[in-house]
Amino acid sequence: MSQTAAVVEALKRALKARKLTYAQVARTLKLSEASVKRMFAANHFTLERFEQVCQLAGIGLTDLARAVDSERNYISQLTLEQEREIVGNPKLFLVAVCALNHMTLEQITETYDIPKSECIHLLLRLDHIKFLELLPKNRIKLLVTRTFSWLPNGPILQYFKTRAAPEYFRSRFDAPGEFMMVINGMLSPESGGQVIARLRRLAAEFSEMHNDDMNLPIGMRRPASIVLALRPWELDAFHALRRKRKAGAAA
């Protein structure tokens, strides 16, 4: 993440901490809400407008810089070896995911059949690889950024593709809180890039909501997974019916 993007993210967190919406920012700047959303999405502000938003959020540039420096000490991804270790131990994997979901030690042991002593041992292992810090009284402090993700095509995503994906797509996706849509089309590389940028923004919004809800009682939160993907692709059955190109034909 660039320094500009990191500063804007810190400003967004400051606004959320004061429960300020884009609509309220828009009124302060005398702009439309859509214009404000575009500014934040593109990380593009004039200095005057940036200072106005900082004043509204009650935070100074120095405080924003400190927040960004603190975030730099966090990790955005694990190493290949660390992912292999986590996915190779089901209980370690479970505790890592629970920590990412902001569950406490007590909530983990109340929800899952893991003795407290064993759970502490697993948390200490995650502490050792700097995934989290186990504080006094067994409080858990995550050491990952808000944009933390698993390695592309790494052990954990491979686990999802081979084992979790069949379980995930077993649903009919017609129950409350479920949704799935498959859209097919033909896009230029430029349009495809725009779709990917929007998917990244949606993923960031999902992460923000996840963090916003962390202080709700555990009974008001439940595990949720969203899968976002785009690739040039055609069903194998369709591809098999394509006409074979003549030798020397232009690609």
CATH superfamily caption of the largest domain: lambda repressor-like DNA-binding domains
- The portion of residues forming beta strands comes to under 5%
CATH hierarchy: architecture of the largest domain: Orthogonal Bundle
Please give the largest β-sheet: 2 strands, antiparallel
Using the coordinates above, name the CATH class of the largest domain. Mainly Alpha
Task: Determine the structural class based on helices, strands and strand pairing.
Answer: mainly alpha
Please count the beta strands (DSSP E, at least 2 residues each).
Answer: 2
CATH topology of the largest domain: 434 Repressor (Amino-terminal Domain)
Strand order of the largest sheet: 1-2
Termini distance?
36 Å
Average pLDDT over all residues: 89
The SSE order reads: HHHHHHHHHEEHHH
> Rough shape?
globular
Question: Could you explain the architecture of this structure?
Answer:
With 251 residues, the protein is mostly helical. The chain has 3 domains: 3-72, lambda repressor-like DNA-binding domains (434 Repressor (Amino-terminal Domain), Orthogonal Bundle); 80-142, Arc Repressor Mutant, subunit A (Orthogonal Bundle), CATH 1.10.10; 171-236. The protein is 55% helix and 3% strand. The protein is built from 12 helices and 2 strands. The protein has a two-stranded antiparallel sheet with strand order 1-2. The model has no long low-confidence stretch (mean pLDDT 89).
Can you describe this structure in just a few lines?
With 251 residues, the chain is mainly alpha-helical. It is 55% helix and 3% strand. The chain has 3 domains: 3-72, lambda repressor-like DNA-binding domains (434 Repressor (Amino-terminal Domain)); 80-142, Arc Repressor Mutant, subunit A, CATH 1.10.10; 171-236.
